[in-house]
Amino acid sequence: MHASPQQPVPAPWDPSGAEDLALYGEKFRRRLPESLDELHGPAQGVVELPLHMAWSGMTSYDLDKPRQRMGLYRTVLHEGLRDDLPQYLNQDLLLQLWPVLRTLAGRTVRAVWENAFTQLTSRARAAA
């Protein structure tokens, strides 16, 4: 097939999905804060998430309940936008939860956060 100005040659099919995986990872990298110090979200009480993050179910999370706290953090890591992360995540809680939270987060989310913030990687190793 020859390319014309109106019809470029399509990219070859990538059966490994590597390009899709790279784009997926970039989506999460663009959302990261510059530093974990920016995360000043609540450490206790009830948190109400907006629908753009909690579109698939629960919108209210009680941070004093361990399962709900973990659910909130997992949801925010996966669905939160750049401006949401400092508002809903708390640095101390994230560091405390990370050894377990990293096992609940998707592989790409885990890799992006651990590559960006060595404090998380050292927490995970210390807990192992």
Describe the structure.
With 128 residues, this protein is mostly helical. 51% of the residues lie in helices and 5% in strands. It has helices at 18-29, 66-79, 84-88, 91-104, 107-116, 118-127; strands at 46-48, 60-62. Helix 1 packs across helix 5, helix 4 crosses helix 6 and helix 5 (107-116) crosses helix 6 (118-127).
Q: Please identify the structural class as seen in this structure.
A: mainly alpha
Low-pLDDT residue spans: none
Strand content: under 5%
**What level of helicity do the residues show?**
40-55%
What is the topology, as strand order, of the major beta sheet? 1-2
What is the subunit organization of this protein? single chain
Shape descriptor reads: globular
Helical stretch tally: 6
Radius of gyration computed on alpha carbons? 18 Å
Q: Give a short account of the largest sheet.
A: 2 strands, antiparallel
**What pattern of helices and strands is seen along the backbone?**
HEEHHHHH
Distance between the termini: 54 Å
Mean pLDDT: 85
User: What is the β-strand count?
Assistant: 2
